[in-house]
Amino acid sequence: MGLHRAGLQSERRISVNRFIKETNEVMKLNLRQLAVFILLYRLVAGTFYIRLVNQLLRFSLRAAGYSYLTMSNMGAFLWRPATVVCVALALAAGMALMLVEIGGIITAYQASAYLRRVDSVAILKGALEKAGDEWRKRNWRLLPLGLGTYLMMNSYLLFRILSRIKPMNFVMYELLHSSGGRLGLAVLAAVLIVVGMSTMLIFFTCMVEQRNFYDGLRRSVELLKNRGCGRLGFYWL
Prior knowledge:
Blueprint: H1 2-29, H2 31-64, H3 71-78, H4 81-113, H5 120-136, H6 142-153, H7 155-162, H8 168-176, H9 179-199, H10 202-207, H11 213-224, H12 229-235
């Protein structure tokens, strides 16, 4: 038993070290092209997504008969059928766009692991292929995890953007100036951090090791088990 446990711990160390090594290779070999891909992708996809969410929000407001949102009418607004449909569409679009971006990052990792240079077009092509593969494997649960990771890593940027777009600026103001709103945001941030730290390698295990969601989740937890504070630093990498 002792030898078996030691062997498993050694395998986990090798796997995590290999993944970190591949990350370093990306930084050395494909950093420029990966940065170009992320910059252009977020510029195009982000602009499209912000406009989409804004239009969906305005449509749902008109359907509900409101001209603006406050905490007093938020509950009634959210339960409107048109609002539910618009929120579902916005979430689905955001999750799909995020999965493609993660697929691009994984594509660059794999290319660098084989010491192969790739350009931004090849990264985009690989990203779309990986997203399509996960869809065909029905790993749909990766979608909310990808969106949660994006929300956590870009929370400040999103706050700055939403605070300047009508009518979301009214909502953000109400949230930040009420004790319940601040508590809710703090709880959401804590949940995203905990989930993100436990599942940070699931995209690697699913897209590279070709595992299904639950096998990938178990593998991710296994690789990160007993890594303590080191996981937090790696999560922010």
